Each structure stands twice: as C-alpha cells, then as structure tokens.
C-alpha cells in the first residue's frame, strides 16, 4: 500500500502558545490537579474555619427514605465526616420495598427487604469511603437512643414521613438542646426549617393534620366519594373474606358513639355473619356469585328499603351477576393512551377482575390454611392480587352509588395511603437541609440571627417568579406543651426507687428543701399513660422499673393547682446510688423552671404554704441550704448539708447526701 502522506505542522503562533500554557497551568492546579485532596472544593467554598467545623461535627440523620437517600449522599460529598443513620418506622423498621426503587437511588433490586439504614450506609460509602457512617436498624424510640445519646450530636437532620416519629425526635432534640433541621415533601411541594430550643418554634407549636378517619355509617350506607368505597373494599371486605374478621383496620373507621353509628356497627356485624356463612363455598365455582350477590345486590336492595335515607340523596342501584356476565366486554377504556394502571376499567372489566382476583386470593388462602388454621392474608399495596381485588370491588361499589370510577393507579395511592413522591423534589429539599446545617455550624442560629435560618418552601410553578420562598422562622408559641415545658434530668436508681419516693421527696418537697414545691395534687403521665393523680394511687408502691420507667424515659409532671401549666418533663437516667456523687440517692440537673405568668391564672396558695424568701432563691441549678427528708429501711435518717458540683456540660448539679443515724 502507498505510504501515508506526511503533512508538516505549521508553527504555533504566540497566542496559541499562551493559551496552551494557560491550559496546562489550569489542569495542573486545583481544582483539576489529580493530587488535590477530596476536601479541597469544600474548603475553598466554606472557608477553613467552617470546613473544620463541618468535618469534626457529629450528625444524626433520622430516616433513610426519599429525602434520606439524597441527604446522605449530600452529607458525604459536602465535608461531613461523622454521620449516624437511624430508621424510624416502628412497624417494619424501614426495610426496602419495590416501590422505593424509582426515587430512592441508594437502593437497587437486590436490596429489597433489607434494612434501609444499612444499605444506605454501604451505598453512600462508595461516594466517599473516608467518611465514618454508623447505621442503626432500629426504632428511633428504642430506649438505647436516650437523651444522653442525643446530646452526643452537634445537630440532627430529620428525613421522616412518620408523624409520630417526627414528634418524638422533636421532643428529644428539645430535651437535649440539640438543633434539629426538619424537612418534608409532597409531590412538587416541600419545606425545610430549623428547630432550636427557645429560639424558633418547634414541630408541635402549630397543629398537624391527623390521619383521616371515616364514620362507619358513611362507609357502609352512604358513600359519596371514591375514597369511601376504597376504604370499604380494603378495610372491610378484604379483611372479612381473607383476613381476620375480628381485627378490622380500626384506624380507617371513626368509632363514634352516636346512635346512628352504633346502629351501623350492629348492622355491619350482621353482614359479617352473613359473609361467614358463605365461607363454606370458598374454592368452588359458585363462590364468586355468592359473594357478589351478597354485597352488590342484596345489601343494596336492603338499603333501598330505608326510604328516609334517600329523601335528600340519590338512591343506590343494585348490580346483578347474570346481567353483567351476559353484557359485552368494553372495547373503550378511559385513559387508554397512558400507562396500563392509569386506565379506568369499565363495569364489565371490573366485574371480570373481581371474579378473577377473588379466585386467586381464595386459592392462596386455602393453601395458607393448610399450613396453619390461623393463617390469613394481609392487605399489601404491592400485592398485585390484593390490589386487583380492591380496585375491582371499590369500583363496583362506586357503580352501586353512582360515584366516579378510579384507575388502579389512583386506588393504590389512596388504599396504600401513598403520598406522591418525586425524586427531584427530594433532591432540592435535601440540598436545602445541608445549607441550613452549614448555617447552624457557622453560628448563624441565635435569637438575634433567627432570620438567617429561614423557613424555606419549595412551590410549584406560578405566575410569580421563583420556586423557593423564604420566610422568617417563628418564635416558640407561648402555650406549646412541648417546647415550653422545662426538661430536667433526674439521675436515680430506677430499680429500687418507688413512685412514692419520687412524689414525696422530689415533687412535693418544698423549694427550701430542694424540691419542686408542687402541691400534693400532681399528675404524672408517661406518653399517654396515667401513672398517678390524686384519685389514682395504685402505683405508688411500685418501683420506677416496674412501671416501665427505665433509662431515657420522659415523664411529664403537672401541678393541678396551677392553671394552664405545661408542667415539667423529668428525663430519667438510671444510676445506682453507689455511682452518684457522694453516694447520693439522686441527682437533678437542668434549667430553672419557667415561672407561670400571672395572666395564665395561677391559683393563690394559702399564705402559710408560701415558701420563704430564702426558699424562693433555692431553684433548680442553684445551691439549696437544705436536704431532702426521707426514710430508709432502718428508720429515720439524717441528712448532711447539700453539696453542689458541675456536670459534664458545666451546669450546676444538686447532690443530696442521706446518712443513717
């Protein structure tokens, strides 16, 4: 072959040489230098001081779902070196589900059914192996995550979709005095904001929407919206046919005590008994017809006999098995141009799907019963058989009551209580959370700089420019029962200390004796559980341990003689007497209890019950010149003078020393 022609290069011009030298200099220096450290970018952006704070701080991230995946990725790429991740769901402890994979990018198909916290850690370390990540596959409300544990973090980042867990983390961060960045998304909307004790409002300062429940009478007799029919199909019909009939989804029904609701509950029980009689036909060819005739024909005909019920509303119409079986299959489907699950089935399509899914679920139940008579089927939004059944049954009931039909996609969203989630929204909010964390570590969170950590909203596109809306954080609400309650740490031996000792020697003891100076009419509550009040003293001789008040528990104490008082939260920390300073029986540390404003109506005590001027000075965190009287197993004991010391955080701690005579 002919040799290739060699074309000589033209001499480079001076301008080209200058440009090449500039390019070489650019590529051999940060940020393109291959030898530069991973932190060079964040150091250049944040500055040496803030970067050092970021890399040395300890961060707790609660939740590892949609926002959590984006947030953990951001943290490991933004200079954070010490991160702990905890699940929060008290039911399944946040395990990975198939429906998570479209937006929670740290998870893949092989991770299904595994712990979100553990897998998120493994995936995030691939972005930055030098980060120290500790993952916990546990409920954040477990006793191992105590107040002292929360105090070990510089800030807490919430990535939760669970209302109860959010409230709990909010309370623990307030008690531990640790800044919390709260966040959440719904579809295209989202928000992120900082919660700091005595600086901003807390999560519970404003009321939150509670899960929707529906009156039984509406669900059973007068549905008027698709959600009513979906709740009926999922929480009543499915559980009666395939689940435990005695354990309906109680959260779905509103348990009113009105006469109408009581009558409906009784009627519901009668219908349940009728369905039980049909159970003998399960697995036979006639089973589908018997169930259909019962719920879509005879039950509706029975409702039509109640003339008063239909004076001001359209009466329902029964459906007939034979008529639908002889009808032509529909060739038209609403939404045919979209995804399959977004099609709205015709009445005949729903009828066919009802029979088919009923047969599939019946076969599964029969097989499960062969292994154990106690086995039942449980509704799961990701169970195709269950979703086919609930979609078909709810749409047939909608047809009974002339209500618009819904696609399988819509039914799944409502039946599974699915909040629409978009990966881009999660990514935006996760980025804002990190920006808020930077501000906290940069010292921009204080009463005078509250505006620096603004409440940030992400909104949908509107005529007004901008998708992010900034709003100044509100101050704590004065009547909030969570953040306006004083939190006091109590170190005590929970194994041997009785509730009576707590009442007599800490709560009711006068201020001059170092106690709280409450009246004898106190109420003691742990969560929603009443432990003691003036008319309920069954627990006074039980130890704190016997009452389930172990390390990390928070007990709310209220004086019934003080109006509108949020009381005091006692944060229990178990400590054997031998381990306390000077062998004391207990130690108390914490801020001075906030006085109740006169405007709130504090009741006037009798003059002889008023503490002396010296006693008024003996508030928590100050030196008290007196000891706390008590009685040991050996009889009367004398008390040494009180001593004060400083705890690990530099706060004044009162120590009572009790010695036998």
UniProtKB/TrEMBL annotation:
Any one Gene Ontology molecular-function term assigned to this protein's record: metal ion binding
- Kindly identify the residues recorded as the active site: 217
Where is this gene product found?
Nucleus
Q: Which Pfam families match?
A: ThiF (PF00899), UAE_UbL (PF14732), UBA_E1_SCCH (PF10585)
Ranges of residues in domain Ubiquitin-activating enzyme SCCH: 355-412
- Nucleus as a keyword of this entry, yes or no, is yes
Q: Where is the THIF-type NAD/FAD binding fold domain?
A: 45-462
Alphabetically sorted, this entry's keywords are: ATP-binding, Metal-binding, Nucleotide-binding, Nucleus, Transferase, Ubl conjugation pathway, Zinc
* Binding residues for ATP: 63-68, 92, 100-103, 116, 161-166
Give me the ranges of the annotated region Disordered: 589-644
What positions does the entry give for Zn(2+) binding? 202, 205, 480, 483
Question: A GO term (biological process) for this protein?
Answer: protein sumoylation
Q: Which GO terms describe its cellular component?
A: cytoplasm; SUMO activating enzyme complex
Source taxon at top rank: Eukaryota
Q: In which pathway does it act?
A: Protein modification; protein sumoylation
Among InterPro entries, the record links this protein to: ThiF/MoeB/HesA (IPR045886), ThiF_NAD_FAD-bd (IPR000594), UAE_UbL_dom (IPR028077), Ub-E1_IAD_1 (IPR042449), Ub_act_enz_dom_a_sf (IPR023318), Uba2 (IPR030661), UBA_E1_SCCH (IPR019572), Ubiquitin-activating_enz (IPR035985)
Q: Which residues form the Ubiquitin/SUMO-activating enzyme ubiquitin-like domain?
A: 490-576
PANTHER family named among the record's database cross-references: SUMO-ACTIVATING ENZYME SUBUNIT 2 (PTHR10953:SF5), UBIQUITIN-ACTIVATING ENZYME E1 (PTHR10953)
User: What's the family?
Assistant: Belongs to the ubiquitin-activating E1 family.
Q: Protein name, please?
A: Ubiquitin-activating enzyme E1-like
